[in-house]
Amino acid sequence: MVGAEAAHARDHAEVLDLDADVVGHLEELTAWVGAHLRDEPTAVLDIGAGSGSGTLALAERFPRAEIVALDESAQMIDHLERAASASGLADRIRTVRADADEDWPAIGTFDLAWASSSLHHMRNPDRVLRSARAALAVDGVLAVVEMDGLPRFLPPESGSGRPGLEERCRAAMAGAGWNAHPDWSGHLRSAGFDLVEQRTFSYLRAPAPPLAWRYAERVFTNVRAHLADRLAPHDLEAIDELLDDRAPGSLAQRRDLVVRSARTIWLARRG
Questions:
Q1: Which of 52, 111, 134, 238 has its C-alpha lying 20 to 30 A from 269's C-alpha?
Q2: Range list of H helices, 154-269
Q3: How does strand 136-147 pair with strand 110-116?
Q4: pLDDT band at 161 (very low <50, low <70, confident <90, very high)
Q5: Comparing 7-21, 60-74, 111-125, 208-222, which segment has the lowest mean pLDDT?
Q6: For residues 10 and 32, is the Cβ–Cβ distance under 8 A?
Q7: Which secondary structure element, helix H or strand E, spans residue 15, and what is its range?
Q8: Mean pLDDT of 112-132
Q9: If you average pLDDT over residues 142-157, what whole number do you get?
Q10: How far is CA 171 from the centre of its chain?
Q11: What does residue 159 show for φ and ψ, rounded to 5 degrees?
Q12: pLDDT digits (tens, 9 = 90+) for 40-83
């Protein structure tokens, strides 16, 4: 079981890092958050930091800040620490292994808290929001980021199976509750925040970045492994062809991939 958990953590960390690299959304989102702050933060909290791609982006965006990265996974913490060392930012990043759904350890007071693609994983997100508010300084700000469905990679005329393969895959993901999240506005207000702004950012990368095929491969591999009972046989055959590196139409060999993705961000100030 431990080996399986470690393997899952490695795979998940790879997907998170690929998402940050291929979609390239973190620079714009952290800049947008920074433009709404009254002062440059010196203490930033990353809630559910995962692989640390957001942690590193926050450290780069706010060079005066110490970043505290909170996550319950020992494997993710280890991955994050190695990434911080490799980037030369380890001296400003402190990791804390803790379950955000439980009572938080004494980690300090923060000017900015950030929860990217993590809040919808929490067992009790309202409690997490209250904990985040308690950890913020007066006028502190919380940014909640969510992915609006998994990204798309195939051009309209992809030649992979029947038209609309990705739309049917996305419908299967939605039916299974993958990445499902509510509009967090009401939850933020209930936790004692004043909502500053909510905005959706859309991304189109065409031509696709070099590692887009690998990201697409991970997404379709997960769909094939976990949603086969929600897809028709002809769609499963098309996915198998995409994942067969020897096939001319495989993701690894295609040169027509694009990347379409979107993020919604809620910015709220401690009330």
A1: 52
A2: 165-175, 185-190, 212-226, 233-243
A3: parallel
A4: confident
A5: 7-21
A6: no
A7: helix 2-23
A8: 98
A9: 92
A10: 20
A11: 75, 10
A12: 999 999 999 999 999 999 999 999 999 999 999 999 999 999 99
Question: Is 194 within 8 Å of 271 (Cβ atoms)?
Answer: yes
- Cβ distance 67 to 120 under 8 Å? no
Amino acid at 53: S
- Answer yes or no: are the C-beta atoms of 196 and 141 closer than 8 Å: yes
Q: How far is CA 232 from CA 155, 156, 172, 220, in A?
A: 21, 20, 11, 15
- pTM for this predicted structure: 0.95
Helix, strand, coil % over all residues of the chain, rounded to 5: 45, 25, 35
What are the tokens at 153? 């990679």
| 111/270 Cα distance (integer angstroms) | 10
- Average of pLDDT values for 131-158? 94
DSSP for 146-171? EESS--B-S-SS--SSSTTHHHHHHH
* pLDDT over threshold 80, residue 2: no
Interhelix angle 53-61/74-87, rounded to 10 degrees, is 40
Architecture label for domain 2-154+181-205+261-270 = 3-Layer(aba) Sandwich (3.40)
